[in-house]
Design goal:
Blueprint (H helix, E strand, L loop, with lengths): L1 H21 L6 H5 L12 H14 L4 H13 L1 H23 L8 H14 L3 H5 L2 H14 L1 H10 L9 H15 L3 H20 L6 H18 L2 H10 L4 H37 L5 H16 L13 H21 L4 H45 L4 E4 L23 H8 L2 E4 L1
Parallel strand pairs: 1-2
Helix pairs in contact: 1-5, 1-6, 1-17, 3-4, 3-13, 4-8, 5-6, 5-8, 5-16, 6-16, 6-17, 10-12, 11-12, 11-15, 14-15, 14-16, 15-16
Length: 431
Amino acid sequence: MRRAAYAAALLAVFAGIWLLTAHTPLMMDDYDYSFNWATGEPLAGLFDVIASQAAHYMIWGGRCVVHALAQLFLYIGKGAFNVANAAVYALMIAMMLTLADGRGGAKTAGGVLLCHMLLMALTPFFGTVFLWLDGACNYLWGTVLALMPLMILQSALGGGFFAKAGRGCAALGAAMCFIAGWTNENTACGVFAAVLLHMIYERMRGGKIAARRVVCLIAQGLGIAVMLLAPGNFARAAGEQTRGFAMEMIYRLAVVTYCGLRYCGIPIAGAAVLMLMLKRKGAAIALDRTLTLLGAAVLSGYALIGSPVISDRSFTASVVLCIAAAAGLLHDVLRAYDVKKKTRAAGAAAAFVLCAAAVWYAAGQVTAHEAAWNAQLEKIEAAKAAGESRVTVESVLSGSRFAMDIALGDGPADWPNSTLSRAMDIEIAGE
């Protein structure tokens, strides 16, 4: 019954995210990545994606894994992305609960709905990182891939699949960690640092580190190096630099600290309260698990100090990790205080109602945003049908966390007008 309820909750989350993703239109960077960056022509196949990312690596940045995913879905079609994206979001929640409690006790319907509700409530850039095609490939999919070393660590410590001997196991882990390192600058670096510190902690306590785990860590570091050493990163950083080095570092430290408190302060404070409750009860506190997750979250945030650009969406993994840590502690509290099944069921039901209401509200916001942008696209198509060479359309701004601003430039040469003009085969100006 418990497993069925858990699966049903994941399916409900999948359905809600599919609905929201399906009504989130292609926009902004999607038009850029619809073209082969090497030739300037529309994507025509898998080899175009590979060639495009080779050019992208040289001139813009090293996130080839996640941008290749974005370009692949832009070539295959939005319908396939809608389904896959909802599945990956549900997978992320399952991963959060696995990290929250490796024994599986946190994998409940209530846990799923709680994580989903908190993500919707605590992520002011929800639509940008979980629904928008390019943003989701970068941050949702990137987070799921970047957290794989933590999953491997938990498996190794808990006697799971990656605790087993065998070259195949080591090779699979190394491949997964290499890809995890080659995803997102700050998240990959934060997770790498957390895994490394955990290994150091184990050694200080006299533990032995299996060779395959060292191989996985090295592979993760190589993936990070490949991403960070992209020539495009240095060109982009030079273009963003506007202050002296010392002032730039102080500014970045202040911004990262502010954003970290803004986006992660609530789940971190919640985790602290839950630990105090466990201590008061005299129950064991899973400090190893909790500090690893919170440490990875904090380190991922502060790794942004060295990133070419600091953006709020880059805190996605930090929010996810903090919620996972709090969810694990909440499960421990419920067990320590012997909360009855009926009370837990009532809490899960309340979480379901809140999630359903949030999805209903978000759907209204997303569909209104979609309709406004479709009206502009229809205006473009009407101008083309009339044989006009230029059309003026309006930006579509959104004050909702579930939709992203579509801000156009003034003239056809301004971004994103330039790429949109190329995609629509007509000069586009913005109002």
